[in-house]
Amino acid sequence: MLEAVSVASRQLFVVEPAADCESLFSLLQAAGWTLHRCHLERLTAQAGDVVLMRLPDQPSSQLLTVLEQSQACWVALLDEPPQPSMKALLGERFFAAHSLPLNAVNLLDTLQQTQVFARLSKQQGERQARHFLGNSSQARSLRQQLERLANWSGPILISGEHGSGKKLLARLLHEASPRAGQVLVHVDCVRNGSGLFDEQGPLAAAARTTVVLDGVAGLSAQDQQRLLQTLQGKPDLALLIISRGELEQALLQGDFRKDLYRLLAGQQLQTIKLREQHGDLLLLAEHIARLHGSSASRRQRSFSDDAIDAMTAHAWPGNVRELCSRVVRALAQARGRPINAQDLGLEAVHSHDAEVVTLEDYILRAERQALDDVLARHTHNMSQAARSLGISRPTFYRLLHKHRLR
Fold it and tell me: Where in the numbering of this chain does the Sigma-54 factor interaction domain appear (predicted)?
């Protein structure tokens, strides 16, 4: 499968400064890679499949923003062992990391694997964008909100943590809307804010298709005024506003207009933190492994007990994006055997660290899982849900109340 990527299509974006790596670049070019060297602030969200970067000691806010918006897979070069903050970032957002000085053969192999999985991720992401997986009450509630807002004409604010699926929700809303036949338009307001108001610009396109605005908090006071006037004249523009908390922060600091915020946030969607998506973690991990494992012409991988324990104990600061990144890397590491905690880059949970679980705990978990499963199948028919479990409606409602599902 690795050989399926043509040499002519090997595009590598290298983040400057990288002057110390000139000898490495010659080897990469000799291996058929076309190099595009640019500074971080000039790197666009659509920049190729693979990005190579020599990491600083500490992540800058600019780096975090670029990583959040990037659609590429990133490979890091490290001068020394990473600090805890950078180690967490490597796990969440980078496909691989190599220490300097490095083995060029190993790096070439890594870059080739990275490009394959970057393309698989984009292909699978397009397929996956039509679905929002999860049997938890939070996932079911979010699906219901998506259905309710699919035909909404006007701005919708989509907010949530890094990597929690804001752009997925935007695509799902678009594909469920009357505008689904049109191309979904993405705009980075930080880089292209002034272009919003061009005669043939994104706001003009919002009259016929869905426009996703990212980085609205970075608009100048003048552009905020122009956007306010536009929405006051055309309140039915299909705008999806992406926020990771920076819009609300700008509002609190007085850097963003309250009247504009009210127009943009009239309807809201909040993504789910993976650590709060009870019962869905393994479902999502297995789904990712199934998609990428089959696409790589490898049999579906299972997860070992220590992998499941490690995933359950992990806080997932990078949410579903981090989960996808770790599982995809683990697929390359496992080579046919069950995925373990080390493959995922997670610390194994030792038995003496594990929580003591009683029989009552297992009974409660089984009840909760049964309720999650039956509600996923019979969301709008409580009588049928109760019958499928072989219990009466009053008993069913008592269980829902007990587990705080209603």
Answer: 132-332
